[in-house]
């Protein structure tokens, strides 16, 4: 195994335990890896701007305040990552995940996309920009195990 610690950013849907499955799998595999992620508490993420900077009457400005603050975290962590994993879940349209994938691709970061077959057509351009498209968190762990091998 590689002696250096890899920094992996885990972006995407927040309604399942996919992050924990990758973290637990990497730990069980003995991988030298650290993980970072966006704020995954949906309410805290959505309302951080108005909670810190004050209330807004219009949803656009409420969302804009929160997006700006969240972007400080997201862009910094993606910029410092050795690789980025972006999960698209089945239930919601995850525009933020698509943006993160595009940002990572623009920075030429190694990129792993995770989604079910139902999203193959909708995500064809995102998949084309990725180094790998996986179906499960366990496949992500196996990809990391392979690329981190000495």
What do you see in this structure?
The chain is of the alpha/beta class and 150 residues long. The chain has a domain at 6-39 and 81-148: Rossmann fold (3-Layer(aba) Sandwich). It is built from 6 helices and 5 strands; from the N terminus they run E-H-E-H-H-E-H-E-H-E-H. A 5-stranded parallel β-sheet has the order 2-1-3-4-5, with helices on both faces. Strand 1 (6-12), helix 1 and strand 2 (33-36) form a beta-alpha-beta unit. Helix 1 runs parallel beside helix 6.
Question: Which labels suit this protein?
Answer:
150 residues, alpha/beta, Rossmann fold, five-stranded parallel beta sheet, 6 helices
Quote the distance from N terminus to C terminus. 4 Å
Name the average pLDDT.
95
| SS summary, helix count | 6
CATH architecture field of one domain? 3-Layer(aba) Sandwich
Strand content: 15-25%
Classify the secondary structure makeup into a structural class: alpha/beta
Please summarize the sheet with the most strands. 5 strands, parallel
Low-confidence stretches: none
CATH topology heading of one domain: Rossmann fold
Shape by Cα distribution: globular
Tell me the total number of β-strands: 5
Question: Would you spell out the secondary-structure blueprint of this structure?
Answer:
Elements: E1 6-12, H1 18-28, E2 33-36, H2 42-53, H3 59-79, E3 83-87, H4 95-106, E4 111-114, H5 124-129, E5 132-134, H6 137-148
Parallel strand pairs: 1-2, 1-3, 3-4, 4-5
Helix pairs in contact: 1-6, 2-3
